[in-house]
Amino acid sequence: MSPAHHCKSTLDYIIAKYMGFADNLLKIYVPFHMGRHWYLMIVDMWDENLIYLDSLKSSDERQARIDQMLVVARLLDVLLSDMSAYEYKTTVPKCISKFRIHEPHISQQAADSVDDPIRFVGIEVNDSTRMTIAVDLVMGDHNPISKEVQEKAVKFWDRNMICSYKKGAGPRKRTCSPLGPLSP
To answer: Which domains does the chain have, with CATH numbers?
Structure first.
């Protein structure tokens, strides 16, 4: 779909089906794939920047990548120029294609390495990160058995840790117990 050749009914469908009101829109994240390489554009509506995040910057490809960003920015201009996208009819639409292009310094991957989308968000994947993700998945409101898991974890702690401490026992050796915190 090209901004120059858009179909009004298609744009109406996209706005109605996938977009809330744009008045309070702060950022739009747009991943790109070009020549077996991923990069990311963040449209910062507050600071009026098009942020270009690329973990494998190439002087040969830079302009083509920025050109692609501008094509999408012009398409966003078309989508957001429709006043039905706004809750308040006094809102003045911003011209995203006129935003400044900002290229923050981010670490670069080796030229012969495989793309790693995690690099964009600056997460180092280690045991601590894995544990944080696991805890978020288990404890999150989206998990229907979150309360049950928490109750079993407390019982496990009480049974295996606090009782040993109260009896004056020294620290327990770490063992692989067949009864984990989720066991009945």
So the answer is: 3-121 (3.30.310)
Tell me: the pLDDT tens digits for 38-67? 899 999 999 999 999 988 888 888 999 999
H, E, C per residue of the chain: CCHHHCCHHHHHHHHHHHCCCCCCCCEEEEEEECCCCEEEEEEECCCCEEEEECCCCCCCCHHHHHHHHHHHHHHHHHHHHCHHHCCCCCCCCCCHHHCEEECCCCCCCCCCCCCCCHHHHCCCCCHHHHHHHHHHHHHCCCCCCHHHHHHHHHHHHHHHHHHHHHCCCCCCCCCCCCCCCCCC
pLDDT per residue over 123-174, tens digit each? 566 777 777 777 878 887 888 888 888 888 888 777 776 555 555 555 545 4
CB contact at 8 A, 78 and 15: no
Q: pTM for the full model?
A: 0.54
Spatial distance between the Cα atoms of 23 and 44, rounded to a whole number of angstroms: 13
Over the range 57-77, which residues count as b (16 or more CB within 10 Å of their CB) and which as e? eeeeeeeebbebbbebbbbbb
As given in the structure block, the two tokens for residue 113 are 């390495």
